[in-house]
Structures are given as C-alpha cells and as structure tokens.
Design brief:
282 residues; Rossmann fold; 2 domains; globular; 12 helices; alpha/beta; 13% strand
C-alpha cells in the first residue's frame, strides 16, 4: 500500500523520526521515497545518515515531491506552516496532521481549500514502536486514505479509526496523555518497592515489567480486565489486600477524573486553535 507512495514529513522531531524509523524498519516504505524538512541542518544531516532518506530545509519542496504529506510540527506554528505550503497542496495529495490539539476544523478554516485531510492523535510510545493512535478523517478523505494512514501508524504501534472527529479530545485525555499517568504509577510502585526493602534498580525494573506484562495479557487474551484481576486475587490473599487499599485511596476515581480533566483541557485548547487559525487567515 505504501511502497509506491512518496511520503514527506514537515518537521523532524521525535515523533517524525519515530514514524520514519517505523516505516523504514518495517519495510513499509523504502528510504528513497521519504523526504523530510526541518529548520536545523544538523538534524537533517543526522536523519539522512541514519535512514538514508532525502532531506531539505524547504517545506514546499516536501509537499511538491510527496503523495502523502505529514505535518509533524508544534501546534503553535501549524497555521504559519500551513499558509506557507498551501499553494502546493491539492486533492492529489493526502494531508495528515499529527499536531497536538489542532482540530481538522481549524486546519480547514486556515486553508479554505478542498483537501484530503486526516488527523491523527498518536502518543509518545511510537518512539519504541508501541504507540497507541486514533485516526479521524475530514469530509474529503477517501476510504483508502484512512487505510493508508492506519498502515503508517500501525508501523509504530496500533491504531483505531474514529468516525467522530470530536472524540479525538477523549483520545488525547486517555492515550495521548496516558503515558504520563503510567510513568507516575510506575514511579510510585518503585518507591513502594524501595520502602519495603528492594533496591531502586530492582524496584523500577519489576514495576515496569509488571505494567508491560499486564498490558500484553490484556491485548493478547482480550479478556476483560475485571476477569484478569479476579484471576490474581485469591481469597484472603495479598492482591485483594492491596486492591482494597487502592479502592480506599480512590485510585479508580482519580484516574477517571484525570482522563476527564485532560479531555476537557484538550477541548479548550482546540477551541482556542480554531479561533487563532481563523484569525490568522490572510
């Protein structure tokens, strides 16, 4: 699906590099069909040497040479870069945005042009090819565009397609921000291990591997987490004593509130972006 496509990246930060690495290492796209841009020449030199891809400091060159254009840039400069490149964008190209917090409606208000648009909300775990991403499509996107976007992001993890664009705020609150919640939980578990006598190194390893193993069990078995939890909790045992303490401390409610708060904040930021993008039209 991707091997005959030229893919361009505008922006070559951590997320851009992770996607390039995933495409190349999975043999989904050959390096000679990938081009990226960045404002830092040393960064371009690094990526060219590492992956054998083409690089340029000219964003418009990326657009002209690509069938698929991925905007992997900070949301604060998205409007500026869109206006810079809009002249070379048309319906012959698939345009994918991974700019956090920038709704499709903001992009459309800025460009005022009929385009095949896809928005993706990935998370930081794409850096280790275990990312969780959600994909939403603009009204002019074709079914094969959705398949193409999913192929790209499946090369660095797993993704889902959402028919409703507005649900990307919920994705941001759950899986987009989720790694931060897990890092805090692992840090707390490691502290607990140290408190009961383990070394910091041992505690951190055991906590991290426990999270990884539990997640793999859920994904591989597809058994409901409640059932898996019951498999671990024997009558009068250690796990049920620990779970009682977690429930008493409100862990479940706290996590639900965290996801809801992050979702609401994502919605607020998206509304700000829509206003800012509309005001930025020249």
């Amino acid at each position: 699906m991707l091997r005959k496509k030229n893919i361009g990246f505008i922006g070559s930060g951590n997320m851009g590099e992770a996607l390039i690495s995933g495409l190349v290492s999975s043999d989904s796209c050959s390096p000679d069909r990938i081009i990226c841009s960045d404002v830092r020449q040393e960064r371009l030199d690094e990526l060219a040497a590492k992956f054998g891809i083409a690089t340029t400091a000219d964003n418009n060159e990326v657009v002209r040479r690509s069938d698929i254009v991925i905007y992997a840039i900070k949301p604060q400069i998205m409007a500026e870069v869109l206006k810079e490149t809009v002249a070379d964008l048309d319906m012959s190209k698939l345009v994918i945005s991974i700019a956090a917090g920038v709704p499709l409606s903001a992009i459309e208000s800025c460009l005022n042009k009929k385009l095949r648009l896809i928005r993706v909300m990935p998370n930081v775990a794409v850096m280790v090819k275990e990312g969780a991403a959600a994909i939403a499509a603009g009204e002019n996107a074709l079914p094969e565009d959705i398949d193409t976007a999913m192929a790209i992001f499946n090369s660095v993890g797993r993704c889902v397609f959402l028919k409703e664009n507005y649900l990307l705020d919920a994705v941001t609150g759950l899986s987009g921000s989720g790694p931060a919640y897990i890092f805090m939980i692992v840090d707390a578990l490691a502290d607990a291990g140290v408190k009961v006598g383990l070394s910091r190194k041992e505690a951190l390893f055991l906590a991290s591997q426990t999270i990884l193993g539990a997640a793999k069990m859920l994904l591989d078995t597809r058994i409901h987490p409640g059932q898996l939890k019951d498999m671990v909790t024997s009558p009068g045992g250690t796990a049920i004593a620990g779970l009682h303490t977690l429930e008493k401390g409100g862990l479940r409610t706290t996590l639900i509130n965290a996801v809801e708060a992050a979702t609401l904040r994502s919605r607020e930021l998206g509304e700000m972006m829509i206003r800012n993008f509309a005001n930025s039209k020249s």
